[in-house]
Amino acid sequence: MALPETSMRRPSRRALIGSLPLLAGLPAARAAAPAYPATPVTLVVPFSAGGAADIAARLLARHAPRHLPNPAATLRVENRAGASGALGTLAVARARPDGQTLLLARVASSAILPATDPRTPYAWDEFSMLGLLEETPFIICVREDSPFETLRDLLNTLREKPGTASFATTGPATLLDLGIRHLFATAGLPIDAGLATPFRGGGEAVAALIEGRVQFLGTNLSDALPSLKAGRLRGLAIGTPERLRILPAVPTAREAEVPGLASVTGWSALFGPPGLEEEPARAWIAALAALRQDKAWQDGVQATGGIPRLLGPQGTRDFLATQMAFYRELGRRLGLI
Q1: pLDDT per residue over 307-326, tens digit each?
Q2: What is the rounded CA–CA span in Å between residue 274 and residue 64?
Q3: Measured between alpha carbons, how far is residue 95 from residues 43, 82, 126 in Å?
């Protein structure tokens, strides 16, 4: 049976044009949003290149992006050193919360500084905490040709001739400074028993010790490990419960008769600006969780002197609260606050 002529008539051009707004509103016609992150993410390191923070950041930049929704993403490390880490940390506190700027948080800038200095221009808990990454043991080092054969030799010299031996520090509210002063107090010495010589970062501090510009150093193991393994430096004590397999000759803090030194440790975490948007927050939390099964990242952390310790957002916040309490008490005990 022939169809009515009207049913075979093509729609007019006017009718087609009028239907375009309706078609454009259909879900099938929407362009798919690119997976996060569509453009390179900046990872701010609040200390200079070559130190523990920089090492942790570059390991994260190498391994974490493949676990993001966009596995072709890049994480660009940017060092913004100054004011014991406060300058770079403050830059992230003021950044847009779109996931394009993140912070490699460290103990000095994210715990010690806000715990001991009321002038710190940000609050420790205002950031979007995405996860803890790793811990780095604290180690006391001297040059390989130093006359100080043991930590006891060094402490005895500081007791008999205070202020004659110098140590490298990265600022008054950093682990390199506070760890050494904690050592002095634990050993019954005044907190100015050694002469503090400031440097911009852990890498520079290690170089100064190797060059003989200072006589001893307390630092993150990741800062000093290459020089220790190469025989340019010698470890006098390390704040771990047991001797490390990679440094079997270095005694623990307990063996060196300063067990309180084990309370001081470095760590790295990943933070976003306050109020980080949901999509990047979810993406990074999942990416950090995936690092638990990422052997390449785990091996990289251990090879550079770190101990992987991945915590989620709430675990990281709880850990930071404990760190704040510890450093507030330490600051009071040392007369720093």
Answers
A1: 999 999 999 999 999 999 99
A2: 22
A3: 12, 18, 13
Helix 295-303 to helix 52-63 angle, to the nearest 10 degrees?
Answer: 160
- Please write the tens of the pLDDT for every residue from 85-102: 999 999 999 999 999 999
- Can you tell me the distance from the alpha carbon of 87 to that of 82, in angstroms, rounded to the nearest whole number? 6
Q: Which residues contact 208 (CB under 8 A, 6 or more apart)?
A: 168, 197, 199, 214, 217
- In angstroms, the CA 16 to CA 20 distance is 7
Best CA proximity match to 86, nearest among 102, 101, 108, 104: 108
Name 168's bridge partners.
Answer: 197
Taking only the tens place, the pLDDT of each residue in 168-221 is 998 888 899 999 999 999 999 999 999 999 998 888 999 999 999 999 999 999
- pLDDT at position 334: 86
